[in-house]
Design a protein that fits this description.
The complex is a heterodimer of chains A (433) and B (327).
Chain A: H1 11-23, E1 47-53, H2 60-73, E2 77-83, H3 86-98, E3 105-109, H4 113-118, E4 122-123, H5 126-131, H6 141-146, E5 148-149, E6 152-153, E7 156-157, E8 159-168, H7 169-174, H8 184-196, H9 211-221, H10 239-253, H11 265-271, E9 277-281, H12 285-291, E10 295-298, E11 309-312, E12 314-319, H13 326-341, E13 352-353, H14 356-362, H15 369-373, E14 378-380, H16 387-393, H17 395-403, H18 409-432
Parallel strand pairs in A: 1-2, 1-3, 11-14
Antiparallel strand pairs in A: 3-12, 4-12, 5-6, 7-12, 8-9, 8-10, 8-11, 8-13
Helix pairs in contact in A: 9-10, 17-18
Chain B: H1 3-9, H2 18-22, H3 32-58, H4 76-81, H5 89-122, H6 128-140, H7 143-154, H8 160-167, H9 182-209, H10 212-220, H11 225-253, H12 257-263, H13 274-284, H14 288-326
The chains are: A alpha+beta (433), B mainly alpha (327).
Chain lengths: 433, 327
C-alpha cells in the first residue's frame, strides 16, 4: 500500500516478522484430559462457542437465522459467530489456532480440509457421524467422501454449490430458443441465434474469477483430472485441459465475447442485459433475483464431452480449540449435528442442501432445482494440503494469460503446471512425515 | 533552556550550599531525555527492531509457523532468489521489475505535479481553501475505496472512463486493467490522483516558510517570475525536497493495494509488485522464509537507492555553499 507516510525501510520485513511474533506467542494446546464419548445431546452448564464462517454475501442472513433458531432450541449454548471473507478466513485460521485463539466450530470449503488437518486446525468427527448414524446414503457419495482425509472424517457437509449457466429469458425468447442448450452443438446454435437476434456479444468470457472454475469444469467434461492421485502433480495441463482452455478463448476469437473482460465485468454485463448468458456460481441467485432481471438457471452445457461441472461444498469442521474443554467439545458437536439436520433454511441462500432428504423437501420450484437434479455431474477438487493457494497462484494465472490472448493455452498451462508441481512436491515433503 | 542559562539567571548559590543546588527540581538529570523517548523507543523496539531481526532469522529457515519444525537452511532462500529457474526467483524478479516500472513513472509525477499544485494554491484567489481541500480530499480515502472505485470506472468493457472516451470519439476499448502498458498508466494515474495532495501540502508548508523579503529583494533586482522561481523558490524548497523524494520513492516501492485490487496482478503476473509477491509467498503459501528473504533483498535495494538520493542532494548543497563562499 503506497503512502502510509513515515514508512520505514524495514516496514515490509517488520510486517512479516510481527505476524510470526504474534503467532508464536501461543503454542498448540493439549486436549482436555476428560473428553468423553459424544452422547448426541448436551446437558452441561451454559457454554459459548466461537463459530467462524465466510458467509459475507447474500448467504449471511440465512446462516444467522439458522443460528438464532438453534439458540432458541438450546438455551445453554451461545453461538458467537465471526464472519469474514473466505480468503482472510483461510489465512487467519492457522495463525489463530496456533495461538490458541481459534474457533470451536467453523465452516470451510471441502478442498481446504486437507490443508487445515495438516496445519493442526481441525479435529476428526468420526464419533459424531457414528452417534448420529450419518453415512453416504443421506448425502451424495461424492460430497460425503470429500469430507474425509487420511481415513478419518473431518467435515460434515452443509451444502453443495456449483457453477450454473444463467441465461436471460427475454433474450432467449427473442432469439427463438425454447430449451437451454445442453451440449456443444446446441450451445453454438444458441449463440448464433442470439447474435442474429441482435445481441452482439451473447456470452462474455471472464479472464479472472470464475474463469478457472469454467476451465476445470471443461477439463472434467473432457474426461481429465486436475491433480494426480497422490497429490504431487498438477494434471490440468493435459490434452483435455488444453482443449477446454482453447474452447474458452475461442469464444473471444469467434466474437461471442469481447476481449479483455476484467474482474466481475461479465457478471455486471449480464445484470445489465448486455450479455445473454453467463456461467457463474449458484450463490449469485439471490443477487440476480433482487436485480429484477428476467433470468433462469440451467446446468452447464457439456460442451467438452460428458456433463460435469466444478462444485464445492461448505462443510462444518470441529476446531482444535473445542478440545480444550469437554463441555465445549460436546456442545460443538450438538451444534454441527443440528445445523446439518436443519439445513432447509439454507436452500434460501441459493445453495443446494447436502442431505438428500432436505433436498427433496426444498428443491422443487427453486431456481437451483435444475442443477440439483444433476447432482451426479458435480466434481470436487481433491483435498490436497495447500491446493487452494497453489491453484490461485498457478492455474488462475495460466487461465488469465490465455484468456487475455497473451500466450497460447498449451504453453502457459505447461509453464504454470511445472510451478504447481514444484510446490505440490514441496508440500508432500513438508507434510509427509 | 539549558541548565547553564538557568543557573546564571538565578541568585548565585553559595559555596556552603552545593547540595541544594544538586537537588534543584529544575535541573535536568542525565536520564530525562531517555524517559521522554521511552514510549517511542518501546514501540520502535517491539514493532520495528525486533521484527526486523526476527525477519532476518526467519529468512535463514524454511519457516512455516503452523508446523512444529522450522528447519534451518542457511542462505538457501537467498541463493534460490538468485538462481534462475528456482521456484521463487522468476516470480520475485518479475515483481521487482513491476515495482521498478511503477516507481520510475510515479515518482517524477509525484514530485512535479504536487509542486505545480502547491504553487497554484500558494497564490491568493477567492475559494483558495476550497480548492486546497479538493486536492487533498482523495488522500483521505483508504486504498480499498480508491481501488474498488477505479476498478469499476476503468473497466475496459463496462467502465465509465472508456464510455466517456467513446462519447468524445476517442478509442473506447482501452484495456486499462487487463493489459500493459495501459494498466501501468491506470495504476500510476490512480496513485497520482490519490496521493498528490499529501506532497502538495508539504510543498505548500515549505513555500509559506520562504521569507517574503527574498522575493521583494529579487523584484528590486529586476527578476522575472521564472528567475524568482529558480533563484528563490527552488533553493528554499531544497531542505524538504530530500524528504519528499525519499518518502515518495519508498512509498512507491511499497505499492501493493492498487494492483491487488484494481488489476489483481493482471495480465498474468505483470503488475504484481514486490510487496504483493511477498504477501502471496509468506501469508498465503506459508513460505515465510522465502518471503523474509525477498523482503530483505528489497530492503537492501531500497537502502542503496536512498543512500544515492541523499548523496545526490548533499552534493548539490556542498556546491551551493562553495559558490556562496566565493562570492
Amino acid at each position: 500500500m503506497i503512502v502510509r507516510r513515515h514508512r520505514r525501510m524495514f516496514g515490509t520485513t517488520a510486517v512479516l516478522g510481527a505476524t510470526v511474533l504474534v503467532a508464536s506467542c501461543g503454542s498448540p494446546q493439549a486436549p482436555a484430559s476428560d473428553l468423553r464419548e459424544f452422547a448426541g445431546s448436551y446437558d452441561g452448564p451454559p457454554v459459548t462457542l466461537d463459530f467462524w464462517n465466510g458467509f459475507t454475501g447474500g448467504d449471511g442472513p440465512y446462516i444467522r437465522q439458522m443460528i438464532a433458531d438453534f439458540e432458541k432450541e438450546h438455551p445453554d449454548i451461545d453461538i458467537r459467530a465471526t464472519t469474514q471473507e473466505w480468503g482472510d478466513l483461510y489465512q487467519k485460521l492457522p495463525a489463530a489456532s496456533f495461538a490458541g485463539a481459534g474457533p470451536d466450530v467453523a465452516v470451510i470449503h471441502v478442498e481446504q480440509i486437507g490443508t487445515m488437518v495438516e496445519r493442526n486446525v481441525i479435529e476428526p468427527l468420526d464419533d459424531l457421524a457414528e452417534a448420529l448414524e450419518l453415512d453416504a446414503d443421506d448425502f451424495s457419495e461424492q460430497v460425503w467422501e470429500a469430507g474425509e482425509y487420511d481415513d478419518a472424517r473431518y467435515g460434515i457437509p452443509l451444502d453443495v454449490h456449483s457453477l450454473a449457466m444463467y441465461y436471460n429469458t427475454e433474450h432467449f425468447e427473442k432469439a427463438g430458443i425454447t430449451e437451454p442448450p445442453t451440449d456443444a452443438a446446441s450451445f453454438q446454435d444458441a449463440l448464433e441465434r442470439l447474435q442474429a437476434a441482435g445481441y452482439e456479444t451473447p456470452f462474455w468470457m471472464p479472464s479472472l474469477w470464475p474463469a478457472h472454475l469454467i476451465d476445470l469444469s471443461l477439463l472434467w467434461q473432457g474426461g481429465g483430472e486436475p491433480y494426480s492421485e497422490d497429490g504431487g502433480e498438477a494434471t490440468w495441463n493435459s490434452a483435455e485441459g488444453v482443449a477446454g482452455l482453447e474452447w474458452m478463448r475461442s469464444m473471444v476469437d469467434d466474437g461471442f465475447s469481447p476481449d479483455s473482460v476484467a474482474i466481475d465485468a461479465q457478471y455486471v454485463a449480464f445484470k445489465n442485459g448486455e450479455t445473454s448468458i453467463t456461467w457463474d456460481g449458484i450463490w449469485q441467485i439471490n443477487d440476480l433475483k433482487d436485480s429484477g432481471l428476467p433470468f433462469a438457471a440451467a446446468p452447464l452445457p457439456a460442451v467438452a464431452g460428458e456433463p460435469a461441472v466444478w462444485a464445492n461444498s461448505h462443510q462444518f469442521v470441529l476446531g482444535r480449540h473445542a478440545l480444550t474443554d469437554a463441555d465445549k467439545n460436546d456442545a460443538a458437536k450438538v451444534f454441527i449435528a443440528w445445523m446439518s439436520e436443519n439445513s432447509a433454511e439454507w436452500a434460501g441462500a441459493g445453495m443446494i442442501p447436502a442431505r438428500a432428504s432436505v433436498r427433496a423437501e426444498t428443491m422443487p420450484g427453486s431456481v437451483q432445482e435444475p442443477i440439483a437434479e444433476e447432482i451426479d455431474a458435480l466434481r470436487f477438487l481433491p483435498s490436497i494440503p495447500g491446493v487452494g493457494a497453489i491453484q490461485a497462484d498457478t492455474l488462475e494465472i495460466a487461465v488469465a494469460s490465455a484468456m487475455l490472448g497473451n500466450a497460447p493455452p498449451a504453453d502457459v498451462l505447461d509453464t504454470e503446471a511445472a510451478r504447481a508441481d514444484a510446490q505440490l512436491q514441496a508440500n508432500l515433503e513438508r507434510f509427509g512425515e | 533552556m539549558s541548565a547553564a542559562t538557568e543557573t546564571a539567571a538565578r541568585p548565585r548559590p553559595t559555596a556552603a550550599a552545593p547540595r541544594t543546588r544538586a537537588m534543584s527540581p529544575t535541573r535536568a538529570r542525565p536520564y530525562t531525555p531517555w524517559l521522554f523517548l521511552l514510549p517511542y523507543l518501546t514501540l520502535f523496539a517491539v514493532f520495528v527492531v525486533l521484527p526486523a531481526v526476527l525477519g532476518l532469522w526467519i529468512s535463514l529457515h524454511e519457516w512455516d509457523y503452523t508446523l512444529e519444525e522450522q528447519p534451518f537452511v542457511g542462505g538457501e532462500n537467498y541463493a534460490d532468489l538468485f538462481a534462475a529457474g528456482s521456484g521463487t526467483s522468476d516470480v520475485f524478479w518479475e515483481s521487482m521489475r513491476a515495482t521498478g516500472i511503477f516507481t520510475l513513472f510515479s515518482v517524477p509525477l509525484l514530485l512535479v505535479l504536487p509542486l505545480l499544485v502547491a504553487l497554484l494554491m500558494h497564490r491568493r484567489f477567492p475559494g483558495r481553501n476550497f480548492f486546497r481541500a479538493v486536492y487533498f480530499a482523495p488522500y483521505v480515502l483508504g486504498v480499498a475505496v480508491v481501488g474498488l472505485l477505479w476498478r469499476y470506472l476503468l473497466d475496459s468493457n463496462v467502465g465509465l472512463v472508456n464510455f466517456t472516451l467513446g462519447v468524445f470519439g476517442l478509442p473506447s476499448d482501452i484495456p486499462w486493467t487487463t493489459a500493459v502498458p495501459a494498466a501501468w498508466v491506470a495504476l500510476v494515474g490512480v496513485t497520482v490522483w490519490w496521493t498528490l495532495g499529501f506532497n502538495a501540502v508539504i510543498y505548500l508548508a515549505a513555500l509559506q516558510d520562504i521569507p517574503a523579503e527574498l522575493y521583494e529583494a529579487a523584484a528590486v533586482d529586476g527578476a522575472g517570475p521564472w528567475q524568482k522561481f529558480r533563484a528563490v523558490t527552488l533553493p528554499g524548497l531544497r531542505p524538504i525536497l530530500t524528504f519528499i523524494t525519499i518518502n515518495t520513492l519508498i512509498a512507491s516501492a511499497n505499492m501493493f493495494g492498487q494492483s491487488y485490487i484494481i488489476t489483481q496482478g493482471a495480465p498474468g503476473r505483470e503488475t504484481r509488485t514486490a510487496i504483493y509477491q511477498i504477501a502471496e509467498t509468506g501469508l498465503r503459501n506459508y513460505q515465510m522464509g522465502d518471503a523474509a528473504a525477498m523482503s530483505y533483498v528489497l530492503t537492501v535495494v531500497l537502502l542503496f537507492i536512498s543512500i544515492f538520493v541523499f548523496w545526490l542532494f548533499r552534493e548539490r548543497d556542498a556546491k551551493g555553499e562553495k559558490t556562496g563562499a566565493r562570492r
